[in-house]
Amino acid sequence: MTGPKTNERPGTRASVQGFHMSASKARVVLNLIRGEDVKTASEILAGTTREAAGVILKVLNSAIANAVNNDGQVAEELYVSAAYADEGITMKRFTPRARGRAGAIRKRSCHITVIVSRMDENRLELLRIARAASATASRARRVASSRRKGEPVPAAQYEVADTSTDVTDVTTTEVEETTVETTDEVVADEVVADETATEEVTAEEHSDETTEETN
């Protein structure tokens, strides 16, 4: 047994005719919101970057408005019961190609329809429970965040900061002392090297004088 025909599906509908986009591209976005409640469907469409999401969001809002104003429904109790895109007219154009040929250009269009209906009681109860739990958790997070902002900074943090500063000062002092000692040792080595070179020069001069006297 087949389901109800497209134009006989229950619910409140809204549609757009002749939208300049292929039906296959519109169906990709429609598959995301089919069966979702209207709030979730609106959030999905708002976060979708495809071009079809903008016009489908307008159609969804129109269907919600029709259900509220014409059928007396409550917007929070609606969900997307059906969403589909049919092929529209295709405009045929041609572009010149090599060797006198012509390339076909098909400018497609589609008809987008969104139907919203009231959720059953079981689903409404589950949705209310989920929204209440989400609201409670959100309020708890806000209260905890405000309390953390109002609390003074513990004294232990200041102690840790002071200790780290002392350690840094001590380390810097030790490095400076080590640098001074190293510099003194280098200077002392240079003085010893100069004295050794002077003694060698004096010994060579004395050796030359002795050799001349002998001759």
Notes on the structure:
With 215 residues, this protein is α+β, with helices and mostly antiparallel strands. It folds into three domains: 100 residues, Ribosomal Protein L22, Chain A (Alpha-Beta Complex); 31 residues; 56 residues. 60% of the residues lie in helices and 18% in strands. It has five helices and five strands; from the N terminus they run βαααββββαα. The protein starts with 11 loop residues before the first strand and ends with a helix.
What is the count of structural domains? Answer: 3
Helix content: 55-70%
Number of helices: 5
Nearest-integer average pLDDT: 79
Indicate the low-confidence ranges by residue numbers: 160-165
What is CATH's topology name of the largest domain?
Ribosomal Protein L22, Chain A
Q: Which CATH architecture of the largest domain would you pick? A: Alpha-Beta Complex
The arrangement of helices and strands along the chain is: EHHHEEEEHH
Radius of gyration: 43 Å
Number of strands: 5
What structural class is derived from the secondary structure elements?
Answer: alpha+beta
- Straight-line N-to-C gap: 138 Å
In terms of DSSP E residues, the strand content is: 15-25%
Largest sheet: 3 strands, antiparallel
CATH class of the largest domain equals Alpha Beta
Any idea what the CATH superfamily of the largest domain is called?
A: Ribosomal protein L22/L17
Widest sheet, order of strands: 1-5-2
